[in-house]
Fold this protein.
Amino acid sequence: MDWIRLTIRTTRDGSEPLCAVLADFGADGFEIQDSAEFKRFLEQNKARWDYIDEGLFKDDSGQVLVSLYLSDNPAGHAKKELIRECLKELKTRDKDNMFGSLDLSYSRVNEEDWAENWKKFFHPVKIGKRVLIRPEWESCDNPEGRVVLLIDPGMSFGTGTHETTKLCIEALDEHIKDGDVVLDIGCGSGILSVAALLLGAASAVGVDIDSNAVETAYKNAKLNGLSKERFGAYTGDILTDESLRRELSNKKYDVVIANIVADVIIPLCGLVPEFLNKDGIFISSGIIASKEEPVRQALEKQFDIIKSVKDNDWVAFHAKRKTR
């Protein structure tokens, strides 16, 4: 499958909230990089770009480039136009110029080129006390004897390097017990399900609205030696699909984790208790700091909040099902 790469010029302060806005459109798999580096890339690869905003070639010191990928099909092109309109509206409301120019450029990228680009930027990373995430194409020393999680992210969000994913893996490291059963809502590349299983969970179920994410999650589970008896995944929207919710609620889970966005987590708070065991833990992340309070209020209706953890502009909650 080919892809559309969208690149948006913003500021360092605006990059994280911009990602949160884009995530509301179902966008994920963000790359965030210094614009000087990207400018060099543009100049060296002019022939590969269909359209480039000339503003990108001007002096843009202090700017940041946020890139994301959409499927090169009618649905992806429709989403691209929605994002274009969103950026226009965001610019008109940005009285303090926090987001900068929001210039948009795009190109088409084939699967092979995208995979090779990832290899330049994705390297082994330690997370929490026990986890070492290693891309499958690299080797590294592991003197601490950490749990090694092999990953090939495909086109789906979740390499472990983003703050929201790190917060989730740290939470799993803290809460997973041997034999736990895990539900991963918005599983993306499957990295959180795989992490939970490698940390001792007996089984995990992932669910994502993107069939490409589910396919990638299965590949990453297999890459880590995990059978389909231990990891299974569904494609669908847990908020709107009642049959999917019934299917998932056939078993109860010790840990439910959702690394999505605040506007999805808020309505999820009313649904998650039906999936949890009596003493179950709900871990939620992907929450931009400005949405922390609305999520907290939604959680407190159904859960006792154990703690909240911040990393830069992102927040994660650890919560326990209320006892009636």
Observations:
- Residues 2-118 form a domain with the Alpha-Beta Plaits fold (CATH 3.30.70.120).
- The two ends are 49 Å apart (CA to CA).
- The CA atoms of residues 53 and 105 lie 6 Å apart.
